[in-house]
Amino acid sequence: MRHGETVWNIEGRLQGRADSPLSERGLRQAGWLAHLTRGIDGARVSSPLGRADQTARVVFGTGFRHDPRLSEICVGDFAGHLERDLRDRHSALFQGDDLEWYDRCPGGEGFAALEARCRAFLADLTGPTLVVTHGITLRMLRRLTLGRDATLLSEGVIHQGGVHVIRNGVETVMRHPDDL
């Protein structure tokens, strides 16, 4: 699951490891996630970043743990800036695939480091697990779990308010009826 919508998501501001609170819609999305996951067994884990923690508290109550490996990719110097402004000022960095620029953020983490921590997280799982994380981190977890190459990273939509279920090499997305 991706955390609910934040104030910065609405503004188009990059968060990375920085944070902003959930919007009213984000709180509704967290409620939808709680509804969708009710009765599903498994470990419950969240990124420690505020927006994911805020979502996890609505979804899981207090019955979850934090894992820093689920934090969002660090966007370095771009954190807190509007994406449209960055695209204007640093157009060369935004060339290519829709998400390639995450690998080129000045002072950022890059995909290799994100992949390494996501692989380590997945290797430590011992059974079904419900995860609250972030858009790019969820994309990486999804790619690795499905055993796909790097091109899967930018495929498809990662829904706030949706549950991306990956089981036996197949992904399905559960959405709340109010979110369709």
Average predicted confidence as pLDDT: 95
Structural class: alpha/beta
DSSP strand count: 5
Shape: globular
**What's the number of structural domains?**
1
Relative helix content? 25-40%
Q: Whole-number radius of gyration?
A: 16 Å
Largest sheet: 3 strands, parallel
| CATH architecture assignment | 3-Layer(aba) Sandwich
Strand content: 5-15%
Architecture overview:
With 180 residues, this protein is an alpha/beta fold. The protein has a single domain (7-179), classed as 3-Layer(aba) Sandwich (Rossmann fold), CATH 3.40.50.1240. 34% of the residues lie in helices and 12% in strands. It has helices at residues 7-11, 24-37, 50-60, 83-89, 111-123, 135-145, and strands at 43-46, 65-66, 129-132, 162-167, 170-175. The strands form two sheets. Strands 2-1-3 form a three-stranded parallel β-sheet. The protein has a two-stranded antiparallel ribbon with strand order 4-5. A hairpin with a 2-residue loop joins strand 4 and strand 5. Helix 2 crosses helix 3 and helix 5 packs across helix 6 (135-145). The mean pLDDT is 95.
